[in-house]
């Protein structure tokens, strides 16, 4: 039976509005910044293959499950889980899924905002023509100058957090729809321009081979976990962001079609970014495994040499900032919705509280790139031997918290919720598609997440 609940935060006008907002959440730094650098660090093609497989068999079904729970509960993830669990006469501990998600959102946004700050800084660096004619070495030193100075990073991080809080305080529906509708296609076109440049860079074949040719000898157990974690991260799954957006979805919209559309767009953007970056990496003798600075060290080389590079470069980073912005909003929305529901705060007040806490946490990341760059808290654990505080935060959230959140969502949606309820809420009938979904969420996701976890710990 469909519930009569309505969200106190309002509703999307239709399915397209939801698809745009969810795409805005999914497409962000994860696609353009993170995907290339972790692909570079984990050996290329085999990593990408595992990632694509995870998107298809875990990501899409979990997205459907998360949207479904959100729409049924119609509240912030904490309250949605509490309500749905009470309805099924289950333990109220299920609300911890919402709490864990909120914490993951905070932690992710804390570093996400710092990296978005780099992109902001690069809007001005590219726009002023700073990179024109520079060699790879010159480009490297500009990146080092930026991250070496904590004050600078802090300033950009502050600007980005203020931008995020401003939109969130006004409610997520208004501008988001238009922004995503116009800016996403523009980002897509600019990536194609960069791909065109990479095509002529002299090392296109080598770049494509690295990205797409699977060589499993280069993929470790930890690499498999990182690929799986990234599938959750890039689709914004496992922490309630998509759940809270689902809670604003009208009753009659098809969840399956929306989830597939979002996932396909997200994946295409990531692959286009990879296709632009790796040829440049090889053509300029750079190291694919050079870490989180990868795109900031490579793309400016292209902008410095192509006609109109200053303009295109600036436009590219403006669009990247927008993509990051629409993701950042979704990272903080579960917490803001909860503060409004449970503490009676106004949206503005709630956004400021959530934003300030996140900003403070962000300082950990700011310092990881300079004054604390030698602080390796878990260096006694082999896979973390060179992990800075930022690296650890990223690992903890993307590779542990999100898959764990996804696992719990799967267990709730496919084991705890009665079959009739999910048939009713997904509204795709009881045929093959529904059964496939249920099989994937009931068996494949929990088993895959457990196997990958145990494999990294060394138990299997
Ligand atoms: N999906 C976003 C990206 O790829 O940049 C990041 C993100 C947003 C992760 C929202 C998690 C989330 F809940």
Task: Write a brief structural summary.
The chain has helices at 15-26, 29-41, 45-73, 77-87, 95-127, 136-148, 150-169, 174-199, 204-212, 221-234, 241-246, 255-283, 294-305, 309-343, 347-368, 389-416, 419-426, 432-457.
Kindly list the characteristics that best describe this protein.
binds 4-fluoro-L-phenylalanine, globular, Hydantoin permease, 18 helices, 75% helix, single chain, mainly alpha, 460 residues, 0% strand
Tell me what you see in this structure.
The chain has a single domain, classed as Orthogonal Bundle (Hydantoin permease), CATH 1.10.4160. It has helices at 15-26, 29-41, 45-73, 77-87, 95-127, 136-148, 150-169, 174-199, 204-212, 221-234, 241-246, 255-283, 294-305, 309-343, 347-368, 389-416, 419-426, 432-457. The N and C termini lie far apart (42 Å). The chain has 18 helices and no strands. Helix 5 packs across helix 16 (389-416) and helix 15 (347-368) crosses helix 16. By secondary structure, the protein is mainly α. It binds 4-fluoro-L-phenylalanine. 4-fluoro-L-phenylalanine binds at residues 25-26, 28-31, 105, 108, 233-234, 236, 239, 241, 327, 330-331.
């Amino acid at each position: 039976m469909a519930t009569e609940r309505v969200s106190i935060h309002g509703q999307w006008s239709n399915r397209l509005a939801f698809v745009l907002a969810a795409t805005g959440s999914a497409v962000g730094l994860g696609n353009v910044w993170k995907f290339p650098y972790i692909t570079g660090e984990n050996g290329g093609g085999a990593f990408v293959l595992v990632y694509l497989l995870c998107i298809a068999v875990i990501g899409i079904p979990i997205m459907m499950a998360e949207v479904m729970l959100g729409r049924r509960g119609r509240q912030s993830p904490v309250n949605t889980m509490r309500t749905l669990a009470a309805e099924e006469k289950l333990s109220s501990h299920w609300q911890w899924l919402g709490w864990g998600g909120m914490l993951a959102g905070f932690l992710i946004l804390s570093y996400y905002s710092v990296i978005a700050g780099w992109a902001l800084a690069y809007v001005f660096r590219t726009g002023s023509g700073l990179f024109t004619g520079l060699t790879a070495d010159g480009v490297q030193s500009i990146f080092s100058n930026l991250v070496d100075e904590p004050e600078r990073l802090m300033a950009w991080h502050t600007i980005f957090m203020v931008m995020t809080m401003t939109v969130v305080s006004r409610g997520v529906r208004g501008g988001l729809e238009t922004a995503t509708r116009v800016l996403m296609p523009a980002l897509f076109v600019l990536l194609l321009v960069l791909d065109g440049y990479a095509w002529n860079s002299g090392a296109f074949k080598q770049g494509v081979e690295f990205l797409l040719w699977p060589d499993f000898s280069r993929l470790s157990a930890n690499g498999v976990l990182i690929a799986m974690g990234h599938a959750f991260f890039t689709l914004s799954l496992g922490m309630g962001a998509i759940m809270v957006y689902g809670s604003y979805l009208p009753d009659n919209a098809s969840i399956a079609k929306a989830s597939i559309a979002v996932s396909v767009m997200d994946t295409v953007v990531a692959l286009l970014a990879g296709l632009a970056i790796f040829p440049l990496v090889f053509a300029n003798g750079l190291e694919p495994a050079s870490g989180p600075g990868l795109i900031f060290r490579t793309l400016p080389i292209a902008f410095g040499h192509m006609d109109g590079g200053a303009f295109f470069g600036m436009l590219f980073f403006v669009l990247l900032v927008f993509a990051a912005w629409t993701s950042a909003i979704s990272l903080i929305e579960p917490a803001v919705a909860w503060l409004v529901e449970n503490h009676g705060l106004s949206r503005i007040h709630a956004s400021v509280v959530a934003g300030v806490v996140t900003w403070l946490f962000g300082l950990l990341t700011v310092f990881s790139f300079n004054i604390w760059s030698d602080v390796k808290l878990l260096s006694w654990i082999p896979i973390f031997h060179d992990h800075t505080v930022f690296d650890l935060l990223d690992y903890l959230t993307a590779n542990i918290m999100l898959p764990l959140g996804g696992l719990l969502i799967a267990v709730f949606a496919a084991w705890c919720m009665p079959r009739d309820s999910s048939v009713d809420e997904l509204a795709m009938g009881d045929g093959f598609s529904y059964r496939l979904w249920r099989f994937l969420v009931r068996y494949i996701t929990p088993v895959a997440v457990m196997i990958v976890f145990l494999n990294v710990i060394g138990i299997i």
